[in-house]
């Protein structure tokens, strides 16, 4: 591989005009496609195989025109102190609001609070349910404005009015903090390279790669049903890895210049060596992201595949566009250790010949491996303690900031009708195979009334054919509680008995039941997913490092860092620690998809640093150095760059903590903390300590396996000249 990439790097260096033109053309094509593509439509959220999804699909068939996926709004009215919603003036204000709400062309129906018994027992709270023909993402701004205007007009009469539901769904925004993250990355690159030009290359190429990836996602959003979160995730990961991959190749190029290589040869060698590490690091990330498809949640699969495509683009850009840009830069890119004149180049170093920080740190770890290993493992173990209290769920209006109208509507409904009113269960009775459908409907309602934690059971509402009915069940507890989850399981257990007695099928759906099913599906998929991703990456790393213990150590180190990161997520988003610093206004359960998502993404990113750092150690070992000295050499050449890459990635991910979307905020925080733990504790401390303790055993591989594995030559041994080999022999003899 090193030889092929060496030739590719030299070709891109020589044919830089053609390479640059190709990437500019791709960026332009993707941009034009995004600009001309139809706007994204409704983003469906389906969970194949779950009971809640089966019930939803059945409703679509048996209740045509129901608009089951249409947006909904609950306009909640509260009377002034000392008054009732049934008072004449308040009732007139509500009736006027209902009239205004019914006038929109996209409105399917509006339920009158007084006709539908939607007034609380104490008479202080009432609500009007609005059903739309289209989803919240498709709803026109005029319809949203009409909804807000009707609420405001009612407020003007003295009522307290808030709006819940998904009709006011807004596109998530990442905020200005994302720009701050990129600015921090720029500063780190300038400090690392000592050159504005060299620092600009990774940023430029990463932005081009993300531009192509996100524009392509936007162009295909309508056709492939891609949500807004998909492009945000792709830009988050694509920007981070794009900068890192380019950083490693530019750094290796400058190191090759230091050894006196010609610039074209240095570009080829940088792509042949560091580029090989980029390829395998990118493959681990792609495997982790594409592997999300095993969960069989379409939204998660699309997010993973889209992000993986952006990572693949970042790899290709690093291998081709970076050497092309190096060709354009010429002598303006200095060898490693030299700074541009603008940044103080040409000055005499204060302490010439002093080992760099990476060398000094690695030498310390090699001398005290046991102490460093114990300190790192105990520290990560302490950070992981909160993960034992992990509670999973999906966000609803109750998790919104208290400043939002959705959250205030949620609280008003809880106060007026009970906490379970915000998460009603919809029981669907399929009596098509029953001889007595009406009797089956009645029996289901009676059985549910006898269960615990049930406040209200509405009469069955059959369809026109009379073979299917819906029953609304209001629990006594809030939607995200364990008690409500137990009630869902209890209804399903009763449904099995009813099916055997009446041949009528009983299915439980609704947003609350859907959330419960999603959480269960994700929990069930976590171990198979972990085994698949870690197993494939383990095999890949065996090929890269030609070792059994090094990939095993890498996997165990990853488990430490991801568990510690989950502990930090629980502490901040569930317990509320540092909530002011991270702008978390409302604590609650961690999103159900967070653990499996972090496992996939963090594993891929963790292997980036493992590959970049340890391949340099193996390169030194293969070229004749003793195991402990190879660890020091690997840090001498790689620690500064890996540190810079980690800081950049942390800065980029932290930029997404400012997002208005709770899911994006949590992902940004979780990934930033995971990179912090993995890069600076696991890869910088635990890894060298373990390798120092293992010695030569770290690079052991059974002979039969060594013969069976392909030689990918990540170390670039095939690129060594006769002079290089002679130098290696002298090093061994010394």
Kindly describe this structure:
The chain is of the alpha+beta class and 734 residues long. It is 63% helix and 7% strand. It has helices at 2-14, 16-36, 51-62, 88-101, 141-155, 177-193, 196-224, 228-258, 263-290, 298-329, 357-367, 369-384, 405-417, 437-449, 482-502, 511-545, 549-574, 579-582, 594-622, 627-654, 662-694, 703-708, 722-733, and strands spanning 72-78, 107-111, 125-132, 160-165, 392-393, 425-430, 454-457, 461-462, 468-475, 505-509, 590-591. The model is unreliable at 725-734 (pLDDT under 50).
Topology, element by element:
Blueprint: H1 2-14, H2 16-36, H3 51-62, E1 72-78, H4 88-101, E2 107-111, E3 125-132, H5 141-155, E4 160-165, H6 177-193, H7 196-224, H8 228-258, H9 263-290, H10 298-329, H11 357-367, H12 369-384, E5 392-393, H13 405-417, E6 425-430, H14 437-449, E7 454-457, E8 461-462, E9 468-475, H15 482-502, E10 505-509, H16 511-545, H17 549-574, H18 579-582, E11 590-591, H19 594-622, H20 627-654, H21 662-694, H22 703-708, H23 722-733
Parallel strand pairs: 5-11
Antiparallel strand pairs: 1-3, 1-4, 2-3, 6-9, 6-10, 7-9, 8-9
Helix pairs in contact: 1-2, 1-9, 1-10, 2-7, 2-10, 4-5, 6-7, 6-20, 7-8, 7-10, 8-9, 8-10, 8-20, 9-10, 9-16, 9-19, 11-20, 12-17, 12-21, 14-15, 16-17, 16-19, 17-19, 17-21, 19-20, 19-21, 20-21
